[in-house]
Amino acid sequence: MQKSQRTERAAPHRHAPIVRKPAAAAPEPQPAPTIRTPPAATPEPQSAPIGRLSAARAAVLQFLCSELGAREVRIAKLIPAGHGSEGWLVEAEILVPNLEVKMLGLPLTQEILERERYALELDADLAVRSYERPGPDDE
Question: 94: number of CA atoms within 13 Å, CB side?
């Protein structure tokens, strides 16, 4: 069987005619675009109290993003500090801009990020009491 017999040819592409409005006609008014907001993922009442765990998570996210410049945060551990205290112990991984590459001033198309681990301690008021980067022996 020859190649020309096996291959089917598609019909030639036909362009649809372009219809233009006469130059004398006034442009039609366009309706104003409507801004649509997506529905909430979980419909919760506005007065619903936030849980202690969620509040601690939000405090950690806010601290890491505002103080350390984290682009992404992954909380690995979030546990109560101890039997007698009201605080929290947190371990998190964050992605931050690589300062060495930034100092070189190279024109990059994407930002270079590096992963860092942090251990944080929150007090009862969800303020960060301490934070540190654990060493390689602590991991």
Answer: 23
pLDDT digits (tens, 9 = 90+) for 28-48: 665 655 555 555 554 444 444
State the average pLDDT for the chain.
77
For the chain, give every domain's residue range: 51-139
Asked whether the predicted pLDDT for residue 127 surpasses 90, the reply is yes
The rounded distance, in Å, linking the Cα atoms of 37 and 17 is 38
pLDDT band at 1 (very low <50, low <70, confident <90, very high): low
- Measuring CA to CA, which residue among 57, 56, 66, 76 is closest to residue 116? 76
As a whole number of angstroms, the distance between CA 82 and CA 78 comes to: 12
In the sheet that holds 88-97, the strands lie side by side as: 72-80, 88-97, 113-122, 128-132
pTM, entire model: 0.59
Two structure tokens written together for 93: 């991984």
Burial code (b: 16+ CB inside 10 Å, e: under 16) for 89-98 equals: bbbbebbeee
Query: How many helices (H) does the chain have, and how many strands (E)?
Result: 3, 4
Rg (CA), the chain: 29
